[in-house]
Amino acid sequence: MRLFARRLFYLPIDLVESITGKRDAMTPPRGMVFVGSGDFKAQGQIMLGQLVKLAGLQPHEQVLDVGSGIGRVAVPLTQYLNREGSYEGIDIVRKGVDWCRRKISKDHPNFRFTHIDLKNDLYNLSTEQEAKGFVFPYVDARFDVVFLFSVFTHMMPDDTANYLHQIARVLKPGGRCLATFFILTDDSKADMMRYKGLQFVHQKGHYALLDPSVKEANVAFEQDWLHKQVSLAGLQIERNFLGYWPGLDKQQTAGFQDMLLFRKPV
Predict the structure, then answer these.
(1) Is 210 in contact with 202 (CB distance < 8 Å)?
(2) Distance of alpha carbon 116 from alpha carbon 90, whole angstroms
(3) DSSP β-ladder status, 219-222 and 183-184
(4) 0.85 cut: is pTM over it?
(5) Dihedral pair phi/psi, residue 66, rounded to 5°
(6) 145-183 pLDDT per residue, tens
(7) What is the residue extent of each domain of the chain?
(8) Cβ-based neighbours of 135, under 8 Å, separated by 6 or more
(9) What is the CATH number of domain 37-263?
(10) Whole-angstrom Cα distance, residue 224 to residue 190?
């Protein structure tokens, strides 16, 4: 219903942009965009910049986008990755995968998109398959870079732990992973109350929820627990970038969500 309401709300402007040609073929109608906020193209360029600057992404590398959505990052990557590079995207929302296949893969055969049918309170209630048992459909040591934007922020702890192990498995030795989180520390807890940022007040042990009625709408993890899971998966945290979600100054942070850069040891 949430996705249907969005399509209905943006229908008039989507029709106008389609008729007048103001929307190019690599930009989805606004009503189809089910993740993120802000300008589709501008946000995609920002995320590409983060991958290049923070994760050191090179044009020839092999990339996995976990939670590829409707191509927000894939679109600018088509202009960055060269013929030696490749992109794999997986997502639980079929309509996003279908759009990307039609609009991106047809002209960029080194960009492939796969639908995975997993249950999520926010995006997919049509199955009982859970992410905690999901095995990424790729061989070991396949990718140079894996990234997850706004994925772990919608996952339960067991699912998150499994995905970290899967990331470690499919990364090449020395490979990097850039991922966003809501991370709970003494400072972030104090800041979210002081500055009236996102209020993760529904404590569940080593994680907290924004809305207990839709668990996976927004999930925050205690830093100690998260760091332990990263280590258990065989990954090393190289850098930690603060987000402004607790109410911090936007100019002093890397983005809305916290961000971690992992590396698989050589």
Answers:
(1) yes
(2) 7
(3) parallel
(4) yes
(5) -90, 115
(6) 999 999 999 999 999 999 999 999 999 999 999 999 999
(7) 37-263
(8) 166
(9) 3.40.50.150
(10) 17
How many C-beta neighbours within 10 Å does residue 75 have? 23
HEC-encoded secondary structure of the chain:
CHHHHHHHHHHHHHHHHHHHCCCCCCCCCHHHCCCCCCCHHHHHHHHHHHHHHHHCCCCCCEEEEECCCCCCCHHHHCCCCCCCCEEEEEECCHHHHHHHHHHHHCCCCCEEEEECCCCECCCECCCCCCHHHCCCCCCCCCEEEEEECCCHHHCCHHHHHHHHHHHHHHEEEEEEEEEEECEECHHHHHHHHHCCCCCCCEECCCEEECCCCCHHHCEEEEHHHHHHHHHHCCCEEEEEECECCCCCCHHHCCECCEEEEEECCC
- Residue identified by tokens 């996952």 is 155
204 is written with which tokens?
A: 């569940």
Structure token digits, residue 151: 């994925």
Q: Which two tokens stand for residue 241?
A: 């970038």
Task: Give the model's pLDDT for residue 230.
Answer: 98
110: left (phi over 0), alpha (psi -120 to 50) or beta: alpha
Report the relative pairing of strands 207-209 and 111-115 from DSSP bridges: unpaired
C-alpha torsion angle, residues 229, 192, 155, 43 (rounded to 10):
-110
